[in-house]
Design a protein that fits this description.
The chain has 389 residues and is mainly beta. The chain is built from four helices and 24 strands. Bound molecules: ligand MTE.
Length: 389
């Protein structure tokens, strides 16, 4: 083990030692999946923050329709909760409801379970590529992954509680361990999205219980929307008569109403809350800087568009002068990325390879992204430079 890996293992091992084991009484209940990535930095993941565990998938991992859980990116704003026993976990449902509820995991398991494949992307994915650079976690291209999520529909739980006509937004609270003065992780979504038959209280990912990193024992899953909408370690749902006001709704996760000049401040009143993801593609291979042999080269990648579908992915091997259609993979479902590939006969030389996705709403990846002070929604045409010998 190299010294960097050893260091990460030591610090994250120390953090996990505190109350990390599930309670002995929870033997019959789901336990967090134990994967190779229990310790930050394992399994080739890029550690963007070891303090709060922020792990990026290397871009070459964006090459399977379902991301294996150990390769699924992790975004935490604070410490993961250490008390995760399934037998004492409770979810309260209150606010603008006729009948407030307190549900256990056993109660949730009695509701019909629904599954869907969702590409989860952090709104800050690609932040490091914005120019001028902006502060925040310096994500490269891999704060995005895809999994099959399962659990009861949020709608079924809300309907049991009885939504009053005054209920317009649904608030989620995560039970993260809040360091110092950081406000708790609380956000809300509009009631229409909450009542959508695909919005879940997810308890499973790729067919097994959620891992601690991904919100064990239950998280909100708001498909097609920015990752921040999908609150992990969910303990409270509250129906509100208006949008929740708090740090992770404002100033966090807001976007300028109009594109401004790169580097310029934006007034809060000229911004809106981020919801559905944008259209985007990335090249997962060959890697930037690769040196390859002349002949047949296959270029691979993934493309996604939030609530919309991918209509086409175009590839350029000459820096954007000419474009060709990439072949889209067979696996597809709403909210999930589409893998794509392009076969090319390459002669020796230096090449700039570009990928550009278009979605079913007619949105096209731009040459330059919309710069914004928080570095959200980087979705410019992707590029790798390779050498063919
Ligand atoms: N939920 C809680 N409670 N705390 C968090 O820090 N991070 C959010 C969201 N849910 C977060 C959270 C953000 S910003 C993202 S992108 C996704 O979780 C990431 O989900 P993942 O770690 O399962 O990939």
């Amino acid at each position: 083990m190299n010294s960097r890996r050893k260091f990460l293992k030591q610090i994250s091992g120390a953090a996990l030692a505190v109350g990390a084991a599930p309670s002995l009484m929870s033997w019959a209940l789901p336990r967090p999946q134990v994967g190779a990535i229990e310790l930050a930095g394992e399994d080739g993941m890029i550690v963007r923050s070891a303090r709060f565990i922020d792990l990026e998938s290397p871009v070459e991992y964006l090459n399977t329709w379902l991301t294996p859980v150990p390769h699924f990116f992790v975004r935490n704003h604070m410490h993961e909760p250490t008390e995760l026993a399934a037998d004492i976990w409770k979810l309260t449902v209150g606010g603008e409801v006729e009948k407030p509820l307190t549900l256990t995991l056993a109660d949730l398991s009695k509701l019909e379970s629904h599954s869907l494949v969702n590409t989860l992307e952090c709104a800050g994915n690609g932040r490091s590529l914005h120019r001028p650079q902006v502060p925040g976690i310096q994500w490269g291209k891999g704060a995005v992954s895809t999994a099959r999520f399962s659990g009861p529909r949020l709608r079924d739980v809300l309907e049991r509680a009885g939504i009053k006509s005054t209920g317009k937004h649904v608030m989620f609270r995560g039970v993260d361990e809040v360091p110092g003065k950081v406000p708790p992780f609380i956000r809300s979504i509009p009631i229409e999205k909450a009542l959508d038959s695909d919005t879940l209280i997810a308890t499973q990912m790729n067919g097994s219980a959620l891992t601690r990193h991904h919100g064990f024992p239950a998280r909100a899953l708001v498909p097609g929307w920015i990752g921040a909408a999908s609150c992990k370690w969910l303990t409270e749902i509250k129906i509100l008569d208006s949008e929740f006001v708090g740090n992770f709704m404002s100033p966090g996760y807001r976007f300028p109403n109009q594109p401004g000049k790169p580097g310029e401040a934006v007034k809060p009143e000229d911004t809106h809350v981020l919801t559905a993801l944008n259209v985007k593609s990335v090249i997962s291979g060959p890697l930037d800087g690769a040196s390859l042999k002349a002949g047949k080269i296959t270029i691979n990648g993934a493309a996604w568009a939030g609530e919309a579908n991918i209509a086409k992915v175009e590839l350029s091997t000459d820096g954007g002068t000419t474009w060709n259609l990439a072949q889209l993979g067979h696996d597809q479902s709403r909210y999930s990325w589409r893998l794509w590939s392009f076969s090319w006969r390459a002669k020796s030389g230096d090449y700039s390879i570009l990928s550009r996705a278009t979605d079913s709403q007619g949105r096209i990846q731009p040459d330059t992204p919309v710069w914004n002070p928080s570095g959200y929604f980087y979705n410019a045409v992707d590029q790798v430079k390779i050498h063919v010998a």
